[in-house]
Amino acid sequence: MGHGDHLDFLDEFAAAAERIAGCDLTFVARGKDPEDMVERVVVGTVLGDAMLAALRRLAQGDSSARRYPRPSVPEEAAESSCDKNSG
Fold first, then answer.
1. 61-87 pLDDT, tens per residue?
2. CA distances from 70 to 6, 60, 66, 67 (A)
3. Which of 42, 52, 57, 66 is most buried, most CB within 10 Å of its CB?
């Protein structure tokens, strides 16, 4: 797709995935018995994948805002056209 440089970050992605895997296994190990551990694997996989995707998006938004801060604008310029027509 023309973005081979994405692989430049593979080691960092792998390190993050390794830390997550360790947390996953610690969560599973807290199971009281084998059945509970299996349930924790399923729950951790299904909910964990959704949670990680949401956390990644939140972190991307935060990182983006810090890396590319919005330029400051005068207060009157920051008003939307909706604000000006509401009164």
1. 999 999 999 888 776 666 666 666 555
2. 26, 15, 9, 10
3. 52
